[in-house]
Amino acid sequence: MSKLVAPSVLPAVVALIVLCACTTPARGGDDYTAFVYAGCSQGRYDPGSQYAADVDTALSSLVNSAGFTAYANYTSPPSAASTGQLVGVYQCRSDLPAAVCGVCVKSAVSKLSSLCNTAAGAAVQLRACFVRYGNDSFLGKQDTTVLFKKCSGENAGDTGVVAMRDAALGALVAAAAPADEGSYRAGAAGYVQAMSQCVGDLGAKACTDCVSAASSQLKAGCGYASAGEVYLGKCYARFWSNAGGGTGTGGGVPVVGGGAGTAGGGNVIGGGGGVGGAAGNGYAYGGFVPNTYGQHDESGKTLAIIIGLVAAVAIVIVFLSFLRRAGGVGGKS
């Protein structure tokens, strides 16, 4: 009698399917560690100094906390040195699992170490988290300076998208502010969705004011774009259309140092040249251009297609091997 199953082959099939599921990259919108911007202070500290030790301790403390809560801050003990107390803070999107926050903050700290080595103050924004440290007493203070802005997917003359965008962004401003973990907010109107996130050291009113400033930036600066995002010193806001307009790079305007309605210096990132920091925030952006999400998304899609094709070929080979072995077993019965 023929045997229809070759048990020795099944574990290989199961293992291959699990491997494919684990190695397929997340979609661009779900790549929580995608780089947005970073800034480094002009001031430097000496390696081996007490300040260097404080920076290491602060960043380690933030990484250790990120697996448990969406927001935390660290303040170094008082020191006799003239550098002042060091403060570190991180903020993750508070709607995401703690495990995602932990991975994001760890990646952000790694980027700070490579991009802003020995900088007395620095900040980095990834897709799902923000990390900053410095001795400039920024904790609990409002900051609506524009650090990065991008609009994409132009829909010329589509007033419907504009109306829905404005309504979705208005919903963010009107949303009730949670009392902790940075006040994540979401809004929608028609097929346009929006979200915002404040840093957790802001109170409810200050968060609302920051989100209002971010929304105003998007309304004024993104025209008929089907997607846009703006990052201020203490909050950010995004909107996107689900009507097929996409979130490509067309019309993207990375802005550092201000824009309409802000106190920044109005610097626009050019083709790789160094740019100055926003007025009064102590940062000088060191000549690297923030990655755009459209570029990142396309590379991720390409990789996913390649992995999918390789996996499909491997599954076919394993399946043919299974049939051959099953036929051999049946022939011997």
TrEMBL record:
It comes from the Eukaryota. Gene3D superfamilies: Gnk2 domain, C-X8-C-X2-C motif. PROSITE patterns: GNK2 (PS51473), PROKAR_LIPOPROTEIN (PS51257). It holds the Pfam family Stress-antifung. GO terms for cellular component: plasma membrane; plasmodesma. The keyword Disulfide bond applies. It is a single-pass type I membrane protein. This is Gnk2-homologous domain-containing protein. Residues 1-28 form the signal peptide. Belongs to the cysteine-rich repeat secretory protein family. Plasmodesmata-located proteins (PDLD) subfamily. Its main location: other. It is found in: Cell junction, Plasmodesma; Cell membrane. The chain crosses the membrane at residues 303-323. Keywords: Cell junction, Cell membrane, Disulfide bond, Host-virus interaction, Membrane, Repeat, Signal, Transmembrane, Transmembrane helix, Transport. Residues 33-138, 144-244 form the Gnk2-homologous domain.
